[in-house]
Amino acid sequence: MDPITIIGLTIALATTFLASFMSGMNPIVIFFSSPSSIILVVGGAIGATAASGTMDQFIAFPKGLIKAFMGGPGEDPAITIKLMVDFADVARKEGLLALEERFDEINDPFFRNGLELAVDGTDPDELREMLELDVFKMQGRHKSGAAFYATCAGYGPAFGMVGTVIGLVDMLGKLDDPSTLGPSMAVAFLTTLWGAFIANYFFTPISSRLRKLSELEVASRELMIEGILAIQAGSNPRNVAGKLVSFLPPSRREEILGEKSA
Amino acid sequence: MDPITIIGLTIALATTFLASFMSGMNPIVIFFSSPSSIILVVGGAIGATAASGTMDQFIAFPKGLIKAFMGGPGEDPAITIKLMVDFADVARKEGLLALEERFDEINDPFFRNGLELAVDGTDPDELREMLELDVFKMQGRHKSGAAFYATCAGYGPAFGMVGTVIGLVDMLGKLDDPSTLGPSMAVAFLTTLWGAFIANYFFTPISSRLRKLSELEVASRELMIEGILAIQAGSNPRNVAGKLVSFLPPSRREEILGEKSA
Amino acid sequence: MDPITIIGLTIALATTFLASFMSGMNPIVIFFSSPSSIILVVGGAIGATAASGTMDQFIAFPKGLIKAFMGGPGEDPAITIKLMVDFADVARKEGLLALEERFDEINDPFFRNGLELAVDGTDPDELREMLELDVFKMQGRHKSGAAFYATCAGYGPAFGMVGTVIGLVDMLGKLDDPSTLGPSMAVAFLTTLWGAFIANYFFTPISSRLRKLSELEVASRELMIEGILAIQAGSNPRNVAGKLVSFLPPSRREEILGEKSA
Amino acid sequence: MDPITIIGLTIALATTFLASFMSGMNPIVIFFSSPSSIILVVGGAIGATAASGTMDQFIAFPKGLIKAFMGGPGEDPAITIKLMVDFADVARKEGLLALEERFDEINDPFFRNGLELAVDGTDPDELREMLELDVFKMQGRHKSGAAFYATCAGYGPAFGMVGTVIGLVDMLGKLDDPSTLGPSMAVAFLTTLWGAFIANYFFTPISSRLRKLSELEVASRELMIEGILAIQAGSNPRNVAGKLVSFLPPSRREEILGEKSA
Amino acid sequence: MDPITIIGLTIALATTFLASFMSGMNPIVIFFSSPSSIILVVGGAIGATAASGTMDQFIAFPKGLIKAFMGGPGEDPAITIKLMVDFADVARKEGLLALEERFDEINDPFFRNGLELAVDGTDPDELREMLELDVFKMQGRHKSGAAFYATCAGYGPAFGMVGTVIGLVDMLGKLDDPSTLGPSMAVAFLTTLWGAFIANYFFTPISSRLRKLSELEVASRELMIEGILAIQAGSNPRNVAGKLVSFLPPSRREEILGEKSA
Predict the structure, then answer these.
(1) Alpha helical stretches, state H, chain B
(2) Residue E260 pLDDT exceeds 60
(3) Residues 62 to 81 of A: which have CB under 8 A from any E CB?
(4) In angstroms, how far apart are the furthest CA atoms of chain E?
(5) Are C224 and C80 in contact, with CB atoms under 8 Å apart?
(6) Nearest-CA distance from E100 to chain D in Å?
(7) What is the full DSSP assignment across D146-177?
(8) How confident is the model over A229-238, as pLDDT tens digits?
């Protein structure tokens, strides 16, 4: 689990509250002074987003939130690379079948499943095609999931604007008492505020976070595909290491290459 | 049929109405207080959208709406996969021609047509090319259809703005009686409201929904293409299952693979 | 000719005028009350668009307008397909050269030229490459033409805003007589109105329409390329029909396939 | 040289000035009434753009301007095609080496260099690869150059807004004398005006113009590559003409094909 | 190091300050008059950006800033090309192994590593694939880094707007004393100002700069890949020079080609 999403959103909220208090306002009072603004913005954004997709996507709504908050970048690629170099060594010395005993060391089901297929003698081209199709389809599911929250983030300010215009129209239509002008406008603008709030403090970061996690998961599986195929091909462990380090930033390559040359 | 579009739009409208009532406004009165705003925005958006396309697209306008509301994600891919694995089994044991008796079990015309061509002995490469061209062309038709509603959604706020500016120019030109200022501005802003309304409560969700349904239909047909070609090639049913499960999220793969390994 | 562009723009204009009259305004008076606004917006948008391209593009400006208004989606693809299936039949039975007598039945110069090259015995791969290059270059010319009107549409609101700001700056600088405030602002906003007007009632629909017509023309030529090459290859007319129907929506395929199987 | 950029920008400026005079304003007085607005907008836009790139790009800044104003669409492709068809004729009849005497007729260094390499017997695949890499790299340089002015155009309104907000904050902070309100706001809005001015009357058209010129230069070189390779391959001049006319709009093809068939 | 980022941002800041002083304002007083605005905008933008990515990205935040300010376009490609042409000469005359003595002349680790692999006899196709994968992965890391600052730049104005709306809502809610209206609005707009400030004077230029530096580094490595493979293949130094000069603008090619032909 990578707590940065919780930390980041807490920083954003806390500094907003702190700034409000410093200016002599009570942010709780301001934000919650008009429940109807919250209902209009949240109801509109959720409703329009739901209408934009399918029932399945709507039901999966909370799952994405949990993943964004509780998920993380997954296993360090350096660990995966080390395991693969090690497996390549075993495969070279003792044959592919000797890897069967070590399947339990693999946590990732994609890696394990791919290696099993490789050891079972699946044709390399077919194996690559199958694994790449799997990653491609996963990428599609992730993209569609992240887009759902981005859609919701986009509807936030739109419904905020709708609510504010409704409020202004109502207010301007009955301008008999100028003293109510200010408070009426304040209420109207609260809808704009809530629209910007759900977009910037919640749905936009969630959507970006899910896209980033997907990017990392795709990279991790591409690394596994390259490794599995190299192991199956019986490549020299040093060459396997040399190729897979491309998936690491240069500053961390020594961890892999240093060990090998030692 | 997937009722989420009706449900979602109902939620968006209902919460807007509820919020208005809670703030002491009558949303019906507000929304319908200026028929001219509705005429300008709806007429402008429909007219400009019609001008942006062809007569055929304009005539097909209601068809897309019906599809967005009444359509759905289609048959569960797991069912299609199971049928295909079953067919692969038959084809392997009794030959391709034995599948002819089972054509009536296939509901999807694309699947049925493709399988007929496969059983008729069409060359695999040619068959793939034909089926992929069909999907590609369908995708183009869907894209063009969804874009039509997106265009309409874009014109909504644009004509809302035009109407509001016309109202403001008229109002500012005859500022003799300040007491009419408020109501005049209210009427002017109603056009903005209607522009935002048709975009956010209707055309944008419709367009996104059509794009999503298209995405699902394309994925479903890509699955069928892979399956048909695997059946024609006489692949092992287990391999067919192993490949096609990529089209399902991991959590549902057991349904297919579990059965097979049993 | 497809009258939808004229019809659509007429609807947009007519409803705007109707709505204005219903609100007690005279739209002609409002729109034409400040000739300087029209000069600034139209002059600015045309000038900046001209500066963004080449002299050739500027000279071709009216040609695109004529095409958008007077052009149309071209011949029904079903007619082209029927002719091609017929030609495939002739080519199979009487040889490619027998088609020479029927060249005059072909209206489209691209189709005729392509078929002539096919009958002359041009190498199929070279023929496909030549025809595809031709379509690709046509697509480029169309895209560049449509982009010109889109650029113009984009400059509309930009110069509208420039004119309004000039008006506001002038007005605010000599605020001695508050009674002139309203009318001055009205004039300033007229520039915004004209900017939005030329964009939404004219240039944006024109640009979208040209893109749509181009899309249809490209699809029509891709259909011709597939057909010409299938005829040259001496394909079975039934297979030619089976492949080319992908260019039609499913609801219209019976027209072609029904006839053939009859 | 193609004077359309100078003509277009002159039209845009002249109509703005005319419109201002017609409305009883002196545009020179308005535009130059606040030198600080000009300094803030121009300084901010140039500074931020410089910071966005490299020193080399900054130094090349004036070069792009000169190209946008003084450059043009280059030689008419019809002339290039005629020369190439002529060269193909010579190469066929007298051999490739006979072209050496005619190198001086070629103005374009890319064409000349490519033809020299072709005559020197460079391998066709390698030659194509070299020439395409050259075009690809040129395209990259052009794109990066045009993007620089687009960046500058984007910063214009951004710094205009910054200056206006600074002005408003200052003005609102010392609201003791309401009579200064108007003039202060006028000055604040001048920054918005200058931001929109440098973007719409200058940097955006320049950037679009450079992109268009690049597009034409790329197309011209692609034409040369096809021609050079066809000449080297000893193609029939009629086929060379038939293929290269794709680079011309249909209305101009007769110029090439008519001559040939004569 | 390329000081243009520091110079550019200094110009942008200095002209803003100069313009403020010229208008009789003290920019320091204005910008720092409301610490709460700074806290809200900076806290919100950093917090929401952090939540959008991973902990690793957040920790690497300062590294990108240092690179943007202190980094530069790297070694002049002409120098790299000259070295490569020289190496190609050596490899041709004395064999690939003779290059080992000259490895120390190479500063760039990517170049050196690639040449070592080439000299070690790595298969050319595999070598190209390895080096291209390395560049592709580097490009991905750079893109993700630059996107982080662009995200931050996008949140700047968003949180500026949130803060301004909070301020307006608070102010409008307690409109008893009109004399405080101006100063309250001034404070509310300061948040807008800070949002625009961090975006336009800092994060947007930083993000563009990082993208530009990445583009140059990718081009530099693509040049190295072409050179290394040409050297390994024992190409003629003149051909190596002829191909690699595509990476230079035409005006600088004489430096390479002139020398060679001399």
Answers:
(1) 4-22, 27-32, 35-51, 55-59, 61-70, 77-94, 109-119, 124-173, 181-198, 204-232, 237-244, 254-261
(2) no
(3) 72-73
(4) 91
(5) yes
(6) 29
(7) HHHHHHHHHHHHHHHHHHHHHHHHHHHHTTT-
(8) 999 999 889 8
D51 interaction partners in chain E (CB closer than 8 Å): 4-9, 12, 205-206, 209
**CB-nearest partner of A9 from E51, E166, E169:** E51
C140's CB contacts (< 8 A; 6+ apart) are D219
Query: What 3-state DSSP class applies to D77?
Result: helix
The closest of B224, B239, B232, B231 to B132, measured between CA atoms, is B224
Cα dihedral sign, D147-D153-D156-D158: negative
Is B15 an 8 Å CB contact of chain C?
no
| DSSP SS3 for D8 | helix
Q: From the CA of B260, how many Å to the nearest CA of chain A?
A: 16
Handedness of CA D220, D221, D223, D228 (dihedral sign): positive
Are the C-beta atoms of residues B199 and A157 closer than 8 Å to each other? no
Residue B201 per-residue DSSP state: I
A106: region left, alpha or beta (phi > 0 left; psi from -120 to 50 alpha): beta
Distance CA(C127)–CA(B133), nearest Å, equals 20
Q: Is the dihedral of CA A37, A41, A44, A47 positive or negative?
A: negative
pLDDT value of position C87: 94
| Residue E189 touches chain A, beta carbons under 8 Å | no
Length of chain A: 262
Task: Check residue A262 and give its pLDDT.
Answer: 42
Q: Tell me, what amino acid is at A48?
A: A
ipTM score of the complex?
A: 0.90
The single-letter DSSP state of residue E200 is I
Q: What average pLDDT does range B195-222 have in this prediction?
A: 95
D181 touches chain E (CB under 8 A): no
Q: Rg (Cα) of chain D, in Å, rounded?
A: 26
Distances from the Cα of E86 to the Cαs of E79, E131, E177, E240, in angstroms?
Answer: 11, 21, 81, 10
Contact D22 C36 (CB under 8 A): yes
pLDDT, tens only, C123-165: 999 999 999 999 999 999 999 999 999 999 999 999 999 999 9
Q: Dump pLDDT digits (tens) for E65-75.
A: 999 999 888 88
Best interface-test mutation with E: which of A7, A21, A23, A253 has the largest number of E CBs within 10 A? A23
Sequence-distant (≥ 6) Cβ neighbours of residue A132 within 8 angstroms: A225
Average of pLDDT values for A93-97? 91
Nearest 5 degrees, angle CA E135-CA E137-CA E141? 115
Query: What's the pLDDT tens digit per position in A156-200?
Result: 999 999 999 999 998 888 766 767 777 788 889 999 999 999 999
- Residues B64-76 pLDDT 10s: 999 999 988 888 9
Q: Is the CB of residue C207 less than 8 Å from the CB of residue B151?
A: no
Cβ contact E4–D47 (<8 Å): no
CB contact under 8 A, C18 and B36: yes
Taking CB atoms and an 8 Å limit, are B47 and C8 in contact across chains?
Answer: yes
Q: Does E108 touch chain A (CB under 8 A)?
A: no
Chain B nearest-CA distance from A154, in A, is 10
Amino acid letter, residue A30:
I
Q: How far apart are CA B129 and CA B135, in angstroms?
A: 10
3-state secondary structure of E234: coil
Minimal Cβ distance to B8: which of A47, A162, A169: A47
What subunits make at least 3 CB pairs under 8 angstroms with A?
Answer: B, E
Beta-carbon contacts of residue D99 (< 8 Å; ≥ 6 apart): D87, D90, D91, D115, D119, D231
Q: Which amino acid is at E134?
A: D
> What type of residue is D152?
C
Give B-chain residues touching A35 at CB under 8 angstroms: 22
